[in-house]
Design goal:
single chain, alpha+beta, Bifunctional nuclease domain, 7-stranded mixed sheet, 6 helices, 7 strands, about 35% strand, globular, Bi_nuclease_dom, BFN domain-containing protein
Length: about 160
């Protein structure tokens, strides 16, 4: 049975006010549902550079990956945040190489940075969206649900607080 995927867009990139770690906020394009994913500083910078269309004097790692794929006549078709295991998200990069489908395991932050550079869609497995909400609810973790509601209601100015 195929996995149902929900198309997402990057709603914003910001700093978590509690942990002071960057958060990529993905938003369902068909609803207000959001999925926050905490990422490392370097990955957040790679995402921010592309979101802001900032040119760098030399290719950064995710630019290199895009260029490598192009050099091998491969195309990044989509990225999917595919699993949530023990509070860790997993992603898959879907590529086409000469008509053959190739999948590559990746961290969501790397997959998102590559998706931005490859101009391809970002998806989250429906099960991951449901489980991330259940984990927040089931653990009695009021803070996680409050954070989700807070993220859903942020305006564009508040979403852009991440600074490189």
């Amino acid at each position: 049975m195929p996995i149902e995927e929900v198309e997402m867009q990057i709603r914003g990139l910001m700093m978590d006010p509690v942990t002071n770690m960057p958060i990529v906020v993905l938003k369902d394009i068909a609803s207000d549902q959001v999925l926050p994913i905490w990422v490392g500083l370097f990955e957040a910078n790679a995402i921010a550079l592309e979101l802001e269309k900032t040119a760098t004097p030399r290719p950064m790692t995710h630019d290199l990956l895009r260029n490598f794929a192009r050099g091998l006549n491969a195309r990044v078709e989509k990225v999917v945040v595919s699993e949530l295991r023990q509070d860790t998200f997993y992603a898959v990069i879907w590529m086409d190489h000469a008509g053959e489908r190739v999948t590559i395991d990746a961290r969501p932050s790397d997959a998102i940075a590559l998706a931005l550079r490859s101009d391809c869609p970002i998806y989250v497995a429906r099960d991951v969206l449901n489980r991330s909400r259940q984990v927040a609810d089931g653990a009695g973790n009021i803070n996680a649900e409050e954070l989700r509601k807070w993220l859903e209601n942020l305006n564009d100015d508040e979403m852009g607080r991440y600074k490189m």
